[in-house]
Design brief:
single chain, globular, CinA family protein
């Protein structure tokens, strides 16, 4: 799988912008391992304040709880890198930032932090509309930058596919 370039990511963000403007919605993100990179490429698009409300960078569990409203019980039961948590992050961002659409990412970018069940490169990505989020697990191969670039690209791509169905 080709590693997305800065140009690729900016192009995807532009396509998401066009789709959001077409459907009349606004988006928000909650990001862990990407550290705000989705927000960065979205805000690289001129006029982004018309469709992008903001992002919650929720790198540790306390931030996930306090900013995105993820419950302590959910984090304890499933761990930060899990489907239930990334779905809760996406819903929390949409609610906290008054948006209709959202995306969230939580993963292990490496080079450390992996385990047998969740190796380095494991990333859960959620996207969708308020009350209708979906998520999928990926295992990206490569260094920290590569894992993060792929995560941003997949989040934008999946949100774009969903918006195009509207």
């Amino acid at each position: 799988m080709k590693v997305p370039s800065d140009h690729d990511l900016q192009e995807m963000a532009g396509q998401v912008a066009e789709a959001l403007m077409r459907v009349g919605g606004r988006m928000a993100t909650a990001e862990s391992c990407t550290g705000g990179w989705i927000a960065k490429v979205c805000t690289d698009v001129a006029g982004c304040s018309d469709w992008f409300n903001g992002s919650l960078v929720t790198y540790n569990n306390a931030a996930k709880e306090h900013l995105a409203g993820v419950s302590t019980a959910l984090l304890q039961e499933h761990g930060a890198v899990s489907e239930p948590v990334v779905l809760a992050m996406a819903e929390g961002a949409v609610q906290a930032l008054d948006a209709q659409w959202g995306a969230a990412v939580s993963g292990i970018a490496g080079p450390t932090g992996g385990s047998v069940g969740k190796p380095v490169g494991t990333v859960w990505i959620a996207w969708g509309s308020a009350g209708n989020m979906q998520a999928e697990r990926h295992i990206f191969i490569g260094d920290r930058d590569t894992v993060r670039r792929h995560s941003v690209a997949v989040a934008l791509h999946n949100l774009l596919k969903t918006l195009q169905l509207q």
